[in-house]
Design brief:
Layout lengths: L1 H23 L13 E7 L10 E4 L2 E11 L5 E7 L1 H4 L7 E5 L12 E5 L13 E3 L3 H14 L5 H17 L3 H16 L3 H9 L1 H18 L3 H17 L3
Parallel strand pairs: 1-7, 2-6
Antiparallel strand pairs: 1-4, 2-3, 3-4, 5-6
Length: about 240
């Protein structure tokens, strides 16, 4: 009897220990001994449709997710990012953070994402509990372009290709001035290109840029914004003239 009682007690203790471990491991992705993820807070003036569970990227690499979103009194929001400790160790201490809305050609299934990048080289890593202030996607692209120039990535084809990608995003963000500026900057760069560069652009980049401008023009036309559509029509014609070898 005594032996049976001890056996029952032993099994009871084991079961209790397993339950305690299970409770402690809730949210630890199956590894109780894994370090806790870094939690970073970013305040944004505008969420641009960002939702909980949205993906977080650092310089093009997926590193975490949006764990929570809390509204602020000023109309903005505080976004909580959850980033595994192993990923956070490779992120600089004060990254530039922005919300990237999907382009208007991306379809309804595409969702806003959080993107981060280092403004400059830093020996310190992102720390849990850190608070950051997000910037607009346009500002993020400006910083990115500036950094690319410093890194020596000044190839004209790459620059025009980036402006083409930006165009789609600016249309989605309803920033028409940025849309028009992107086309104007691309046109000026193409105008100054050598014959060899223009031939290289004509193979892939220019047709893509023309399609983006035409799609943007149709987009504004459908919205009844005839003046904007007409301005893009003139911009497209100027681009075609300047890109001729």
């Amino acid at each position: 009897m005594v032996g049976e009682s001890k056996t029952r007690s032993r099994w009871f203790l084991i079961a209790a220990f397993v339950l305690i471990l299970s409770a402690a491991c809730a949210g630890c992705d199956g590894n109780l001994f894994a370090p806790k993820p870094a939690v970073v807070y970013v305040s944004f003036d505008d969420l641009d449709g960002l939702q909980q569970e949205a993906v977080v990227f650092f310089e093009g690499r997926q590193v975490g997710k949006v764990a929570a979103i809390q509204g602020l009194a000023n109309g903005g929001a505080r976004v909580t990012l959850s980033i595994p400790a192993t990923q956070a160790a490779g992120i600089c201490a004060n990254p530039v953070v922005a919300i990237k809305k999907p382009g208007f050609l991306a379809g309804n299934e595409a969702k806003p994402e959080v993107h981060m990048m280092c403004r400059y080289a830093s020996g310190k890593a992102l720390a849990t509990g850190q608070s950051l202030h997000g910037v607009s996607w346009f500002r993020y692209r400006v910083v990115s372009t500036s950094r690319s120039v410093k890194d020596g990535l000044t190839d004209l084809v790459e620059e025009v290709d980036q402006l083409t990608d930006d165009l789609d995003e600016f249309v989605a963000s309803k920033d028409f001035e940025y849309v028009l500026d992107s086309v104007a900057v691309a046109t000026r760069k193409i105008e100054m290109a050598t014959v060899e560069q223009k031939e290289k652009l004509a193979k892939q980049t220019l047709p893509k840029l023309e399609r983006q401008i035409e799609a943007a023009r149709q987009h504004y036309e459908k919205l009844g914004e005839v003046k904007k559509a007409r301005e893009l029509d003139h911009a497209l014609e100027a681009l075609r003239q300047k890109s001729a070898p």
